[in-house]
Amino acid sequence: MVGGGQLARMTQPAAVALGVRLKVLAATAEESAAQVVNDPVIADEKALADLRAFAAGCDVLTFDHEHVPPFALEALEADGVLVRPGSVALLHAQDKGVMRSRLTSLGIPCPRWTIVASPADVAPFAASVGGDVVLKTTRGGYDGKGVWLVPAGTPESSETVAEPFRAGVPVLAEERVDYARELSAVVARSPHGQAVAYPVVESVQRDGICVEVVAPAPGLSSELAVEAQRLALAVASSLDVVGVLAVELFETVDGRLLVNELAMRPHNSGHWSIDGAVTSQFENHLRAVLDLPLGSPVARAPYTVMVNLLGGDLPDVYPAYRHVMARDPELKVHWYGKGVRPGRKVGHVTAYGSDLAELRERAWHAADYIRGDIDE
Ligand code: ADP
């Protein structure tokens, strides 16, 4: 696995159980996954020579992020390396413009969109959609960085309109969707086309960062749930995705589904599956990229709530760490081995059972306590 973040770290226990040796290429020995695998390879994840040397010791290459440049992926494939997901599929998770254009040609519902060449193009697009616009850098954004909301009537000289163009990559303009909530449909697909769909979840974002996931999405009609799963399975097969695919969706106030974006790797909206599903997304990602039979994605409990642990102002979280475990022995606590900084994802907690309100209270209590927002 290329990338030494928490996704590679959480893949390691799944590899242990499957009897698979997980090798990790990480940027530094301190990274989340480099701490937990044998002999991590410390190298440059974007340098072709480093990737080639790493791939030589692997049966199959997969990723914990989308940042390996397309030219390097293509060169590895030309060398005969099994790259999963492949470069063609992965491009749709790396470039939001490519993603929008392909999904639109497949008839998958998306927000109205266009590629804008300059700030002067934004107002005409806003007029055509009749409201606010969201501008996005087509490459390199994450956790809401690279996304700007431009209210209707904002002059083209304003900073919000100018800034997205500074990165020097094409800019995607979308209508601002009036959504009731955000959903995510996670599926896993293997090279010979077996696929499984996890229950559709609700994901709650704050300041562009996912803070809470509830599986399954409360109150979602079975029609929309099945439609979301069908949509994700259709994207996986049409783009020939191998591994986990997360399709982030908007549920609009008038009850439609629109695709926001794609991730082709285990995803934050699937972390609940470690404790809450028969087979975790990490295990199914490994099974898929190794072309093994996939495991059941079925939930173990009526509800699972996952809340991200974000760093707060408490530099020493050890007392809080002990407190949350002592207060709630049924809470599952996951730490990523990362230093605490305000707003940084340092772990997550999961609670599962049947009383959704109680599960949310318990999971949020732990997250608020760790961040230092409450002390009892
Ligand atoms: P990132 O790649 O940084 O995760 P996203 O494209 O997922 O960026 O956008 C981040 C957040 O911005 C979304 O979770 C959503 O809350 C909001 N957002 C993105 N696109 C739109 C849109 N077209 N309409 C309304 N809100 C949007």
From TrEMBL:
<dbReference type="GO" id="GO:0034028">
    <property type="term" value="F:5-(carboxyamino)imidazole ribonucleotide synthase activity"/>
</dbReference>
<keyword id="KW-0067">ATP-binding</keyword>
<dbReference type="InterPro" id="IPR013815">
    <property type="entry name" value="ATP_grasp_subdomain_1"/>
</dbReference>
<dbReference type="InterPro" id="IPR040686">
    <property type="entry name" value="PurK_C"/>
</dbReference>
<dbReference type="InterPro" id="IPR003135">
    <property type="entry name" value="ATP-grasp_carboxylate-amine"/>
</dbReference>
<dbReference type="GO" id="GO:0006189">
    <property type="term" value="P:'de novo' IMP biosynthetic process"/>
</dbReference>
<dbReference type="InterPro" id="IPR016185">
    <property type="entry name" value="PreATP-grasp_dom_sf"/>
</dbReference>
<protein>
    <recommendedName>
        <fullName>N5-carboxyaminoimidazole ribonucleotide synthase</fullName>
        <ecNumber>6.3.4.18</ecNumber>
    </recommendedName>
</protein>
<comment type="subunit">
    <text>Homodimer.</text>
</comment>
<dbReference type="Pfam" id="PF17769">
    <property type="entry name" value="PurK_C"/>
</dbReference>
<keyword id="KW-0658">Purine biosynthesis</keyword>
<keyword id="KW-0547">Nucleotide-binding</keyword>
<dbReference type="GO" id="GO:0005829">
    <property type="term" value="C:cytosol"/>
</dbReference>
<keyword id="KW-0436">Ligase</keyword>
<dbReference type="GO" id="GO:0046872">
    <property type="term" value="F:metal ion binding"/>
</dbReference>
<feature type="domain" description="ATP-grasp">
    <location>
        <begin position="100"/>
        <end position="290"/>
    </location>
</feature>
<feature type="binding site">
    <location>
        <position position="96"/>
    </location>
    <ligand>
        <name>ATP</name>
    </ligand>
</feature>
<comment type="similarity">
    <text>Belongs to the PurK/PurT family.</text>
</comment>
<dbReference type="InterPro" id="IPR011761">
    <property type="entry name" value="ATP-grasp"/>
</dbReference>
<comment type="function">
    <text>Catalyzes the ATP-dependent conversion of 5-aminoimidazole ribonucleotide (AIR) and HCO(3)- to N5-carboxyaminoimidazole ribonucleotide (N5-CAIR).</text>
</comment>
<dbReference type="Pfam" id="PF22660">
    <property type="entry name" value="RS_preATP-grasp-like"/>
</dbReference>
<feature type="binding site">
    <location>
        <begin position="260"/>
        <end position="261"/>
    </location>
    <ligand>
        <name>ATP</name>
    </ligand>
</feature>
<dbReference type="InterPro" id="IPR054350">
    <property type="entry name" value="PurT/PurK_preATP-grasp"/>
</dbReference>
<dbReference type="GO" id="GO:0004638">
    <property type="term" value="F:phosphoribosylaminoimidazole carboxylase activity"/>
</dbReference>
<dbReference type="InterPro" id="IPR005875">
    <property type="entry name" value="PurK"/>
</dbReference>
<dbReference type="GO" id="GO:0005524">
    <property type="term" value="F:ATP binding"/>
</dbReference>
<comment type="pathway">
    <text>Purine metabolism; IMP biosynthesis via de novo pathway; 5-amino-1-(5-phospho-D-ribosyl)imidazole-4-carboxylate from 5-amino-1-(5-phospho-D-ribosyl)imidazole (N5-CAIR route): step 1/2.</text>
</comment>
<dbReference type="Pfam" id="PF02222">
    <property type="entry name" value="ATP-grasp"/>
</dbReference>
<feature type="binding site">
    <location>
        <begin position="174"/>
        <end position="177"/>
    </location>
    <ligand>
        <name>ATP</name>
    </ligand>
</feature>
<feature type="binding site">
    <location>
        <position position="182"/>
    </location>
    <ligand>
        <name>ATP</name>
    </ligand>
</feature>
<dbReference type="InterPro" id="IPR011054">
    <property type="entry name" value="Rudment_hybrid_motif"/>
</dbReference>
<comment type="function">
    <text>Catalyzes the ATP-dependent conversion of 5-aminoimidazole ribonucleotide (AIR) and HCO(3)(-) to N5-carboxyaminoimidazole ribonucleotide (N5-CAIR).</text>
</comment>
<feature type="binding site">
    <location>
        <position position="136"/>
    </location>
    <ligand>
        <name>ATP</name>
    </ligand>
</feature>
